[in-house]
Design brief:
Layout (H helix, E strand, L loop, with lengths): L1 H4 L2 H28 L4 H9 L18 H14 L1 H21 L2 H13 L4 E4 L15 E5 L2 E12 L6 E7 L11 E7 L5 E3 L13 E12 L3 E2 L5 H37 L1 E2 L2 E2 L4 H29 L5 H26 L10 H10 L7 H13 L1
Parallel strand pairs: 1-4
Antiparallel strand pairs: 2-3, 3-7, 4-5, 5-8, 6-7, 9-10
Helix pairs in contact: 2-4, 4-5, 4-7, 5-6, 5-7, 7-8, 7-9, 7-10, 8-9, 9-10, 9-11
Length: about 375
């Protein structure tokens, strides 16, 4: 299947990714889950191997590859650690991509370059306490004051918040416009600015090695040149950024499911019950066959949508289909993997329970599966 999806260069990168994930990521996965921390050493190693800037041109410090290679990186890393998959997905798809796509040349040199080289980590902040999926109605505001904007408000569930040095933040810049997104603008905000503080990390069910926290703005003064795109363009930027983000999160879900499947497959080949190995029971064989089919179907969805994105074609509905189908598949498959392990699967001695917890978030962030069904249905009925 890989030979059909990837060319020679992609296959070489995939081989490197698999070795890197096995050597550098997998040994720390359980520890990061238990202790809930962002691992800077791992981030630096990813940067040294060009993973933090895979799809960006070399002139901006990137590896000069494409989005297919990036999506494959998320898949391979997530097979062994969902948290690491989240770290890189947010950093590249949600923080770096909008700067590359909508930023000025000066912004690309100032912000995209350190993100691509891995000198800094990127974050994306849209959700607010009273507004989750409805990002047309936000309360955080940026009011023009000469050559600056004064920002007040708060954000929640910001991935990479704390370790990140560069944040893409969405807020209202027009008090007269409410509810239709026309007054929404995007800004690039750096960590450490006066009036900008970061809350305590959230205590989560899964991806516990991936830091999520709130952002607070109290008369934070930011320069007008920090605006990304044009004033009032925030809705378009958020919508297009999240489309690509859904591909990354679908790849994460796919990787988590594959990792759980591989663990379960190895286990049933070794485990004996009632005098024979689990793999010899037809009911177990049927489960494994169903799991394999679901994974391959999901891979085709993910890489078909990614190819559309790579070719500059409309992939809006394809990304929604990926997000809904693959995330639900991952939740179902990781639950089945735990079941195949029996009581052992419910313990932390085996990674499948962590994978099941990690899979759940893929049904929620960058747009819930319910929101994706709305997008798909609207397109069908149009």
């Amino acid at each position: 299947m890989d030979a059909l999806l990837f060319d020679k260069d992609h296959l070489e990168v995939q081989s490197m990714l698999q070795k890197f994930a096995k050597k550098e990521i997998e040994p720390l996965a359980a520890k990061r889950d238990e202790e809930e921390y962002f691992d800077w050493d791992t981030h630096r190693k990813m940067a040294e191997n060009g993973l933090t800037g895979i799809p960006w041109p070399e002139e901006y410090g990137g590896a000069g590859m494409d989005y297919v290679a990036f999506i494959n990186a998320i898949e391979e890393l997530s097979k062994v650690c969902g948290s690491t998959g989240s770290d890189l997905a947010i950093h590249t798809a949600l923080a770096s991509w909008p700067i590359f796509t909508f930023g000025t040349e000066e912004q690309k040199q100032k912000f995209l370059r350190p993100l691509a080289t891995g000198d800094k980590l990127g974050a994306f902040s849209l959700t607010e306490p009273s507004h989750g999926s409805n990002y047309k109605q936000l309360a955080t505001r940026a009011v023009r004051d000469g050559n600056d904007y004064i920002v007040n408000g708060s954000k929640v569930f910001t991935s990479n918040a704390g370790p990140a040095g560069i944040y893409i933040v969405f807020m209202l810049t027009d008090d007269k416009v409410e509810g239709d997104g026309e007054g929404l603008s995007a800004f690039i905000i750096e960590k450490g600015m006066e009036g900008f503080t970061i809350g305590k990390p959230e205590r989560k069910m899964g991806i516990r090695g991936h830091v999520v926290a709130s952002l607070n703005f109290d008369n934070c003064r930011i320069p007008a040149e920090s605006m990304l795109g044009k004033e009032g363009q925030g809705y378009e930027i958020a919508k297009r950024t999240l489309q690509g983000g859904r591909l990354a999160m679908s790849a994460q879900a796919l990787g988590i499911a594959e990792g759980a499947y591989q663990q379960a497959l190895s286990y049933v080949k070794e485990r004996e019950q009632f005098g024979k190995q689990l793999k010899d029971f037809q009911s177990i064989q049927f489960k494994l066959a169903d799991m394999a089919m679901q994974i391959e179907t999901s891979r085709l969805l993910v890489y078909q949508a990614t190819t559309l994105q790579q070719k500059g074609m409309d992939y809006r509905v394809a990304s929604s289909m990926c997000k809904a189908y693959v995330s639900e598949m991952a939740m179902k498959l990781t639950t089945e993997a735990v079941q195949l392990f029996g009581g052992y699967g419910y313990t932390r001695d085996y990674p499948v329970e962590r994978m099941m917890r990690d899979a759940k978030i893929t049904q929620i962030y960058t747009g819930t599966v319910e929101m994706q069904r709305i997008e798909i249905a609207e397109d069908l009925l149009a």
